[in-house]
Amino acid sequence: MDFRLLGPVSAFSGDVPVPIGPPKRRAVLALLVLAEGASVGAERIIEALWDTRPPTHARTIVYGHVSALRGLLHADPAACVATEGGGYALHAAPEAVDVWRFRELVRRATAGSPGEEAAVLLREALGLWRGRVLGGIGDTPLMAAAAERLVEEQLAALEHFAGALHACGRGAEALAPLQSALERHPLRESLVAAAVRSLHDADRQADAIDLYHRTQRLLAQELGVDPGAALSQAYLAILRSRPVVGRQPKRDASARVPTLSPAPAPAPSSPQAPPHRPTAPVPADAPPPLSLLPRAPAGFVGRADDLARLSEAAQSGTPALCVVTGPAGVGKTSLAVHWAYTYAGDFPDGILYADLHGLEPDGTGPQPEGVLHDFLQALGTPEERLPADARAAEHLYRSLLTGRRVLVLLDNARDSAQVRPLLPGTPGSTVLVTSRNRLEGLAATDCARLLPLERLATPDGVRVLRTVIGEARVAADPVAAAQLSALCDGLPLALRLAAARLAARPRLSLRAMADDLVDEHRRLSLLSNEDLGVEATLRLSVQQLPPAGALLFRQLALHVGSELDSGAAAALSGLPPAEARAALDELAAAHLVEEWTGDRYLMHDLTRLYARSAVARADTAGLHRLLVHYLSAAQAAAAAAEPGSQPCCTLPPGVTPPAAPPVFAGRADAMAWYVTERANLTSAVVAAADAGHPELAWRIAVQLWPLVVRQVHDGWEPALERALAAATALDDPDAESRLCSLLGWVLTENGQHTAALEHLCRAPDLAVRAGDPRGQVIALINWAAALEHVGDLSGAGTRREMAARMAHALDHPHTESLSLYHLAAHCLTVGRPDEALAHCRQGLALAPDEQSDERRALLLDTCGKALQALGRDSEARRCFSEAAALTGPPPPVEGAATGQGSVPLGGGGTPGGNLRVVAG
C-alpha cells in the first residue's frame, strides 16, 4: 500500500485508491507518516486534530481513528500501526511513502556538488508533489504548521533544482516551476535569486533585471528592508555581464518560457488559456469589447489549481460548458469572475453575464426568457425586434453567437433547466455556470464539465485575512490566524466576515476572535454582518430543498456525530430507507452534506452548527429512533462477529425494532461496520444518557464488546463509565453486572488494576441478583484475571475453579469450555501442566461441532504448552500445527500475545480468549 501526503492525503493499493475516511482520520494518518516511524502520543494527536478545545471524548475518537487505520492496513503485511511507548507508530516500506521518498531523494541530491545527477534526483523528488500538500485533512494550527514545513522543504528542493540546472548551463528549464512558486511566495529572496539566474541563463537579462527591481520595491513596501546578499549578488552578476559563480559556460539558449510577470490576459499558448482562434485585426479606434461582468472580486487569493482546472475545461467541448459547484460561501462566483477577467482577451466578441438568482424563494429569480432578452439587446438587437416567443428568442440568440467568440457566465443557477435555453448552439464560445447544486443534468445532456470547488487550505485562508486586516496583525499571531481559517471551515465568505469584524475592531486580537469562534453557540452569529452572513447563505440553500431533503436536514440537528449513512438517516427522519437515501442525495446535491464513499456522508462544522441552531424544530422522536437503530445494528453486528455467543441484551420492553436492520455477511463485514461507526456509537451512549434514555445507553455500550476486546487499549473507559452510571440509575443488576465486568476487564488490560478490582468484585453478586448464572461465571473469570495481574494467584485460582464448577452445572458447553480454557491457563501459570492438559482436553471434547475455530485453537495451543512443559514435544508440535491450521496468521490486534505456533492467546485480549469472557 502506498501513502501520499504531497497532495491530498490518500492511500493506494496499486493504482486503486483506498478509502481512508473523514478528514480527521486522514490527519491521524498524516501525523503518523510525518513522524517517520517514531511514536506519536494520543495527546499530540488530539492537539493536532482540535488544537485548544478538544471535545470531551477526544481520546476515544482518536482511538477510533487509529483502529480504523489498523483495519485499513490489515491486508498489507508490510505496513502496520503499532503501539509503542504510549503512542502509535506507522511502520511501512520507505518506498511506499511519498514524503519519505521525497526526503531521501533530496538528501542524495544535496549530498554532493550541484550538477546533472543532482538535477535528475531533484526532478524526480519534485515530481512526487500532486497539488496542495496535506489536502483533505481539515485545518488546525498544528496541521497547518506541518503543511508549511513541507512547503518549505519543497521550495528548498526547487531552489536546489534550479541551482543544479544552472550549474549545467540549463537554468532556463527551471523557469516554469519557479514562476508558479513566485506567484505564491513573491518575498522569498532565495527563490527570486534562483529565478534571476534562470532568466539570465535564458538570455533574458532585461526580464531578470525587472524581476529584481520589482522584488526590491515589494520588499521595501511590505517589510521595509533591502534585498539580502544572495539576491544582490545574483543581480550584480547580471550587471557585470559575466556568469554567476558556479555556472558553467555552456548552456541551451533555445529554451523559451512564459514571462514571470503575468500580463493582464495570458498568451494564447498558456496551458491555462482557452485555445486561440484567429480573428480579424482590431482597428485602433474600435470600441472595447462588450462586457456585462460585475466588478472584479477584491482581494482574490489562491485557487491556482482550480483556475488551472477551469482553464483546461474551457478548452473542451463544442461549445465548452463548465459548471463550478460547491457549498454556500466557498467562492464560486469570485472564482468564475476572476477567471473571466483574467482571460477576457481570449473572448474578443465580449462577455455576457447574468445572475440567475437560483436561490430566490419560489423561483422568483430571473426567468430564461428575460435573460435572453437582456443578452439579445447587449448583442445589438433593438428592443422593437426582440421576439415575443421564447423559442424564437433562443434561435435568434444562437444565430447571433454563430462565428463569435463569447464568454457566457451564468451565475447562481438553480437547476439545469434554467441554463439550457442560454447555451450557444455552435463551437466558438465558452459557457461558465456557477451553482450550489451539482447540475448533473447538464453533464448528462450537454457534456458539461463539473468542477467541485473545495474549501480553502489554511495558508490561503490566512491570505484572505491578510488582504482585509493587513500583514502586521496576521504576523503578530500566525497561529491564531491559522485557527481562524480552520474555524471558518475554509470558506472565503466566513473568512471575510471574520476579517471584517477584526477590521472594524482594531483592538480585537486574532486570538480573542478565535477564542470567541470556538464557542459553538456563538460562531454563526459572529460570522455575520449587516447584510451578509454564513447563516443566511445556508438558510437559502435549505429553503431550496425538496420536502424529503428539508425534513432530513431538520432532523440532522439531533444526530450524534458528523457522519451518517442511509440507515441513520432513515431513523432520524422516519422515512423509508430508499426515501432516506434519496433525501441524502438531495442534501449532497445542495452541498449541505458531502458524500465520502458509497453510503457514507459527512456534515462540515458550520453546516452542523446551523442545523443544530434549529433543533427546536426537530422531531425529538427522531433521536430515540436513531438510538434504537444503533442498538439494533450493534446487536446484529455482534451476532455476526461472534456467532454462538449469548446475546448481551434484548431491546427494551415496548421498543419497536427498525423495519430494515442491517444485515452482515459475516465477521469481517460486522467488524468493518463497528470500526466505521465507532465514533457514532460511543457518542450515542452519551446522547442516550443525556436525553433520559438510560435503558438504551447501557445496551448500546455492552453491544460494543466485539470491538472492545479487539481494541482494548482504545480509550473505551469514558463511554463505559457513562453507561455504568446509567445502569446504576436504573437499579438494574443485570446491566450493572455486565458493565462492571466489561469495564473492569478493560481497566485490567490497561493496567488500572485497583480501579478494575473495584468493579469486578461487584459483578458476581450483581449477576446473582439478576438471576444470571452464566453472567456470574463470566464475572468470576474476569475477576480472577485482575487478581492474577496484582499477584494474587491463590485468589485467582479459587475463582477460576469456582467458575468451572458452576459452568459444568449449567450444562452449557460454550460457557464451560471457556471456563476450562481459563482454568487450564491458570494451571500452566502456577506450574501444574498435567492439570492444564486435562482441562484442555475436557474443553475440546465439549460439543466440538459447536465450538468456533478460535476457541478450539486456543484450547489446542494451551494443550501444546502443557505438553511442552511435560516434555512431550512431538505431541506439542501436533497441537500447535492443528491450532495454526484453524486460525491462520494472527490478526494485528493491539496487546495480543502469541503462543508457540502463532496462535493468539486469551490473556492479551484477542478473539476467542477474553472475547467471550466479557459477553458470556
List its traits.
920 residues, mainly alpha, five-stranded parallel beta sheet, three-stranded antiparallel beta sheet, 41 helices, disordered C terminus
Could you please describe the fold and organization of this structure?
This protein is mainly alpha-helical and 920 residues long. It contains 41 helices and 14 strands. A five-stranded parallel β-sheet has the order 8-9-10-7-11, with helices on both faces. A three-stranded antiparallel β-sheet has the order 1-2-3, with no helix packed on it. 49% of the residues are buried. Residues 241-286 and 889-920 have low confidence and may be disordered.
Topology (SSEs and partners):
Blueprint: E1 2-4, E2 10-13, E3 16-18, H1 23-34, E4 40-41, H2 42-50, H3 58-73, E5 80-84, E6 87-91, H4 98-110, H5 116-126, H6 141-167, H7 175-184, H8 189-201, H9 205-222, H10 229-239, H11 304-314, E7 320-325, H12 332-342, E8 351-355, H13 368-378, H14 390-401, E9 407-411, H15 416-419, E10 430-435, H16 440-446, E11 449-452, H17 458-469, H18 471-476, H19 478-487, H20 492-504, H21 510-518, H22 523-526, H23 534-543, H24 547-555, E12 563-564, H25 566-573, H26 577-589, E13 594-595, E14 601-602, H27 605-613, H28 621-641, H29 667-690, H30 694-702, H31 705-710, H32 717-730, H33 733-749, H34 753-760, H35 763-769, H36 773-789, H37 793-810, H38 813-829, H39 833-844, H40 853-869, H41 873-887
Parallel strand pairs: 7-10, 7-11, 8-9, 9-10
Antiparallel strand pairs: 1-2, 2-3, 4-6, 5-6, 12-14, 13-14
Helix pairs in contact: 1-3, 2-3, 3-29, 4-5, 5-6, 6-7, 6-8, 6-19, 7-8, 8-9, 8-10, 9-10, 13-14, 17-19, 17-20, 19-21, 24-25, 24-26, 25-26, 25-28, 28-29, 28-30, 29-30, 29-32, 30-32, 30-33, 32-33, 33-34, 33-35, 33-36, 34-36, 35-36, 36-37, 37-38, 38-39, 38-40, 39-40, 40-41
